[in-house]
Design brief:
- The chain is mainly α.
- It has a domain of about 45 residues.
Amino acid sequence: MIAISITPVSIAVSIMMTQVFVSTLTGFFLAGERISVYEMISIIGGFFGVILLVNDQLFTNESDLV
């Protein structure tokens, strides 16, 4: 937990959002739950939405920031 407290917020949130993937895969492999295509699309879309909101440097060039 100490490592997450000293990392930048964008990276910490991105790491914590992988909880959705881990819990889905755990349920699929260990509990035998079924995952529909719509659930996978919504999980992946939600993760990319969080990445877009949190990482503001994702689509900017460093030359634009000067």
